[in-house]
Amino acid sequence: MRTRYLTLSILLMLSGLGTAAYAQPLALEAGTYKLTVGAKAPCDVTVTADGAFTPAANCVIGATPAKWVPAGSGYKLLTPAGDIYAVLKPHGEDALQGMSFGVSQDRVVVTR
């Protein structure tokens, strides 16, 4: 009887680990994403493996982020001058979210 409960406990634990491993937060990797800053309309942004972060030409968001770098459990978006534009943390499974720095502190969201 004890063996049966022990086996069931181990199976339940392993099934939980499989689910946790599958539900990973969004990680920036090369591709196209949606960038939303404050109440402005979302626009496309291209991210490259070497750290480039390039908003589309029609993306009107104020100061423009140009580079991304890993920072702890999230990412920093940097301006062309190397100043911090925003710090993003995982928000659910499909978004990175944070606040912009500077005069206008807007919510910044990057989604796949």
Q: What distance lies between the first and last C-alpha atoms, to the nearest angstrom?
A: 48 Å
The helical percent reads 10-25%
Number of helices: 1
Computed over alpha carbons, the radius of gyration is 19 Å
**Basic shape:** globular
Oligomer: single chain
Strand order of the largest sheet: 3-2-1-8-7-6-5-4
Model description:
This protein has 112 residues and is an alpha+beta fold. The chain has a single domain (24-111), classed as Lipocalin (Beta Barrel), CATH 2.40.128. It contains 1 helix and 8 strands. It has an 8-stranded antiparallel sheet with strand order 3-2-1-8-7-6-5-4, with no helix packed on it. It is globular. It starts with a helix and ends with a strand.
Attribute tags:
Lipocalin, about 110 residues, eight-stranded antiparallel β-sheet, globular, single chain, alpha+beta
Please describe the topology of this protein:
Layout: H1 2-22, E1 31-37, E2 43-47, E3 53-55, E4 67-71, E5 74-78, E6 84-90, E7 95-100, E8 107-111
Antiparallel strand pairs: 1-2, 1-8, 2-3, 4-5, 5-6, 6-7, 7-8
In brief:
By secondary structure, this protein is α+β, with helices and mostly antiparallel strands.
